[in-house]
User: Which sequence fits this backbone?
């Protein structure tokens, strides 16, 4: 896998990502979809406003059909989150939960959006004063300090592991971990203290974080609390390589009508590309993104053959 | 495009540029590895152009300049601090939109 270059790599296994896969693979591009279908926001939803599907249907059933379709056409689906994205000349290098690095010609961000705030007492007041939402940005401020990371998924576990390289003590507070085996194994081997089955009740401190109060009323004495809910999204993955977000809210990726971002070879589709948060819109954008990305990859391959 | 009105500030010239500025001074603490810092870059540039004459905007790389972020207790980036007459009048952390930043500036002018 490490030696093959994937034509179209899609981050996110919801309606936008799977539709992109169908269109890209039918244009004879090699396609890999990364992500967990059950984490798509449509998975637990009831759908009744999607054209040609009359009555109320389970989002989970629709996605199962979509996965079968995309797989049958030839797309490969890997149920892992992305931890890091890098540019490598004309290609992109994507590191996933297992630690494997994938090389691709194009990238489609179809990760959806997820809740980032914890919504507990002290969080807003101490934001920037010990409460952080980006381990990759702020780990350096916590050299030899004590920190806690909150979250159940790959962003939290990867964040906790990163922090072991800076902080003297790292706690991970999680209800139940939902990560791949590779990442889980690394966590077990690490010095991270895992508080499973727990969740924060309050972040304490006057002008700076001093502790994290858990729901069993135990308290962790920490200088920093990193809130890392869900998988890494647009803010964490895309902006580090220079992908531009909307300038009013910085919450979604800016695209044109061809679903292109400001970086050649990178596309975005679905909720991550902005409202309305509708499956029909996600599927439409996925179609365009998959189509465009496959064309881009195919053209790049032709050019490289000529050179 | 990067605005030529954005001033690069270091630990060495922080007092002279930010604290002793004749107009309010908005300082953006950032680092090259920080994605959200890159994301707000264009907004910082636009604000520097739009408020030229009424407000100065500077950027400080926290990687090269550890003293000033330490002094102001900065533990997350991007953090923007608005100084007026040498005092902190407002501060915000994270990638916040242009409207919110413009409102924060207007309030201080």
Assistant:
């Amino acid at each position: 896998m490490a030696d093959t270059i994937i034509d179209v790599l899609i981050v996110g296994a919801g309606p936008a990502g799977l539709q992109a896969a169908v269109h890209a693979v039918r244009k004879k591009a090699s396609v890999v979809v990364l992500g967990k279908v059950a984490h798509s926001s449509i998975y637990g939803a009831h759908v009744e406003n999607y054209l040609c599907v009359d009555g109320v249907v389970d989002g989970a059933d629709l996605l199962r059909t979509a996965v079968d379709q995309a797989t049958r056409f030839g797309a490969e689906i890997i149920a892992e989150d992305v931890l890091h994205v890098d540019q490598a000349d004309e290609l992109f290098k994507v590191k996933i939960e297992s630690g494997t690095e994938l090389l691709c010609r194009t990238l489609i961000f179809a990760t959806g959006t997820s809740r980032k705030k914890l919504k507990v007492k002290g969080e807003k007041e101490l934001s920037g004063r010990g409460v952080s939402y980006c381990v990759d940005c702020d780990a350096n401020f916590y050299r030899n300090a004590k920190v806690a990371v909150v979250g159940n998924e790959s962003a939290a576990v990867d964040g906790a592991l990163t922090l072991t390289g800076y902080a003297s003590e790292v706690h991970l507070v999680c209800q139940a971990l939902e990560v791949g085996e590779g990442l889980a194994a690394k966590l077990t081997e690490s010095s991270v203290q895992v508080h499973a089955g727990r969740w924060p009740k309050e972040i304490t401190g006057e002008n700076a974080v001093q502790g994290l109060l858990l729901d069993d009323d135990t308290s962790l004495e920490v200088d920093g609390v990193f809130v890392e809910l869900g998988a890494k999204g647009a803010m964490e993955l895309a902006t580090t390589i220079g992908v531009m977000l909307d300038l009013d809210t910085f919450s979604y990726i800016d695209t044109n009508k061809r679903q292109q971002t400001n970086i050649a070879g990178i596309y975005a589709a679905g909720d991550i590309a902005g409202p309305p948060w509708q499956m029909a819109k996600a599927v439409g954008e996925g179609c365009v993104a998959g189509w465009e990305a496959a064309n881009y990859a195919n053209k790049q391959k032709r050019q490289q053959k000529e050179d | 495009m990067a605005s030529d009105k954005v001033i690069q500030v270091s630990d060495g010239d922080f007092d002279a540029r930010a604290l002793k500025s004749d107009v309010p001074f908005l300082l953006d603490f950032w680092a090259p590895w920080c994605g959200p810092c890159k994301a707000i870059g264009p907004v910082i540039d636009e604000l520097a152009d739009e408020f030229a004459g009424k407000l100065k905007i500077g950027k400080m790389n926290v990687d090269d300049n550890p003293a000033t972020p330490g002094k102001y207790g900065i533990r997350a980036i991007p953090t923007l601090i608005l100084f007026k007459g040498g005092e902190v009048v407002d501060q915000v952390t994270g990638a916040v939109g242009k409207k919110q930043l413009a409102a924060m500036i207007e309030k201080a002018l």
